[in-house]
Design goal:
Strand content: under 5%
Number of strands: 0
Structural class: mainly alpha
Order of helices and strands: HHHHHH
CATH architecture: Orthogonal Bundle
CATH topology: DNA polymerase, domain 1
CATH class: Mainly Alpha
Radius of gyration: 19 Å
Largest sheet: none
Number of domains: 1
Length: 134
Amino acid sequence: MAVRLYLAPGLGKKRLDKLRVSDVQTWINAVGRTCQCCAQGKDTRRKPAQRRCCALGQCCQNLPSATSIAHLRTVLRTILSQAITEGLISRNVASLVKLPPVRSRKRKAWSSDEARRFLESARADDDPLYAAYS
């Protein structure tokens, strides 16, 4: 999934033997600054009644965490390591890319109104996990 949603749109047109550290660094930086809901069209795939942000012109700023970006680099490093094994390239440029610092996020609990709306929505949608939620 990471390849289809992140790697292919960002680096898919570059040949492996022409890939440079600067290309990968630029891609990593761009992924970290781009709303993934907008980039991947997540909101537009929802039913029209359930659309709530990017498809309505209100960007939700769904930015990937530093951990997610680190996972993307790990996937790319693994792919390039396999390419080295197969003799397609001579070095793994993804291993030289600098990652953004990992900062812990402050978590915010739902208000009672938000929790009530979630439970009502789960009940209305006949969510099989409704009993577990409540």
